[in-house]
Amino acid sequence: MEDKKIRNSLYNYLKWPMYLCFILIIMNIQLYFIDVITGVIASCYLILYIAVSGGLLFYKRTTLVKHLIHVSMGIRKSTETFFDDFSYPVSVINGSGKVLWKNKLFNELFLEEQTKGKNIFDWIPTLNETSLPETEKETEAHFRYNTRYYKINMRRIDLEDDKSQKDSLDLRTEKSIIILSVYDETELISYMNENKGQQLAVGLLYIDNYEESLETTDEDKRSIFSALIDRKVTTYMTAIDAIIKKLEKDKYIFLFQHKYLAELQNKKFTILDEIREISKEIDVTISIGIGVQADSFKKRQEYARIAIDLALGRGGDQVVVKTPENVLYYGGKNTQLEKNTRVKARVKALALKEFIEAADQVIIMGHKIPDADSLGAAVGIYRIAKTLGKNSSIVINHVSSALKPLLRYFKDNPDYENDLFITGEQAADMITAKQVKHTAPHQLVASQIEDNINSGTLLVGVDTNNPSNTDAPKLLELTNSIVILDHHRMVGEFIKNPVLSYVEPFASSACEMVAEILQYVSEEIKLKPSEADALYSGIMIDTNSFMDKAGIRTFEAVAYLRRQGADITRIRKMFRSDMDEYKIRAEAIQNTEIFMNDYALTFCNTDGLESPTVVGAKISDDLLNISDIKASFVLTKWGDKVYISARSIDELNVQLVMERLGGGGHATCAGAQLENHSMGDAAEILRTTLQKMKDEGDLI
Fold this sequence. Notes:
By secondary structure, the protein is of the alpha/beta class. The chain has 5 domains: 2-84; 90-192, PAS domain (Beta-Lactamase), CATH 3.30.450; 203-331, 2-Layer Sandwich (Alpha-Beta Plaits); 343-574, Alpha-Beta Complex (inorganic pyrophosphatase (n-terminal core)); 579-695, Diaminopimelate Epimerase, Chain A, domain 1, CATH 3.10.310. 45% of the residues lie in helices and 19% in strands. A 6-stranded mixed beta sheet has the order 7-8-6-9-10-11. It has a 6-stranded parallel beta sheet with strand order 14-13-12-15-16-17, with helices on both faces. A 6-stranded mixed beta sheet has the order 18-19-20-21-23-22, sandwiched between helices. Helix 22 (579-590) packs across helix 23 (612-623). The radius of gyration is 40 Å and the shape is elongated.
């Protein structure tokens, strides 16, 4: 068949000299009209040309065609042999994945798949039509087959209307073909993994509450406990071939190969439990920060420092692993122990005083949809700033119904300025105005935004350390003087580079922290009764009327506020609920679902509620009064988000559950927000998360 095609093509080609004779005859006739002699001469040459062409066509064509066919078939056979003998698998497919041709090695590679069909997608599931190249530019893909890894180089060739190529490859219906070359990269990947595994990871290990714990221990036992902890840490690090160096009596630095990290993660860093077990009498825990996958050792050490700061900021007793892409948390199941010493509070108070004195104005900002704790802490900082002679304002963009009774103390009160409460936009204008004042006229250009960020304004963030959760995130970009005061555990996203950060997860509330600071900033500070009430109410709300996370320092702060004029009767009247709210709370409790025999889950009806999230939090607190309930979860739909309020007493760390959903909080009081979900979908996500955590042994 192929021989006949080539023969006919060559015959047609050899006939062309005879076709040209007709053109030469016409030309010869025209020469006779010009000059007879010239026409005769041309006729002689024409006769000779016809004789030679005819002779070649009729007498030599068979021999010539046979010779050309032999050469053509030989070239084609050599080409096929050349491709078939390639040292790597090669295949030709069309745009829909149909295999048009493949060499021997390709057949051998996918021998087990030959029965599945003739489409490349049946053999290599990672390939599909969208992954095939659309242009003649070479692309590549990677896949695993059996136990080996392969790379595919793909190049598209457009056949267009070239009939000879289509006929030679039997591709009459194809507009283009794709050539696939398969390379085994198993050995290369093995070397890459081995190299990655040998990269050094940097870790920092701190012993939590070391000084305080040993002070309460008998002197003869201190050295024993210290030696036990040191031995346990050294033994653990030796098992992963780590180099460990003790920097201080409660701080270590260690280096180990990256290949051991997966083993430690799978075992969830058992060193946390081992230290906790041997130090039950002295309540000592450890925190670890690990930096990996950075381009340099210095960067990995920086990642380790960031990780240990996160671990300590979240309450300690946990491991944080920092990579360029994300942050991973392990442990942190126990409630952070309250520290008896106030040294840190005094140091932070004096530092805050210095920053306020150096600023021209102070702007205070809490979290979105502020509550009593956020407002009370802001009011406390406001009083510090005013006592130090600085203009100060509090940012509030949304006033909930739960906050209105507290705000009545301050609005239309002649003791306070009209700009005590401002919006985020007004705060931005104030910062910008102060920035212009501090900048020379010739500097008011693009560099004003980058290099001359306002230093005359001090921005104090209270009750949150998450930038996206602040009431006006834009303000964080307008000043480089930021102070953070918060009692929530730090998560992956946190405010970067504050001039002062005071985050104490053991504190019951931000108001408790501010009440302590007030006592150290200046002896001249005297709270007004309304301000003392605001701080007291913040503590009371966050501790659920002193039934949750209320420690010694909490009651000391409350005693200070009572001396400053806080009145319990006024506060109780201020936070009473109306009848409609009580009915909604009763309905939610009546429709409560008991999930996994231990967890209460219900929905809060938002009809007629101005602050449904506050009511949801109250419902979750009410559900804890039911016996045998380890934790409660209340879902509230508001806008395009579903708010989850999670509460527990001591049998479940709800903060770990909410972190799985992108939220956070405390071990006994936490929350999360799910955007663009229905109530039913959010409830199912919560159930799935709880079930998964139970299967993994993390429901503690």
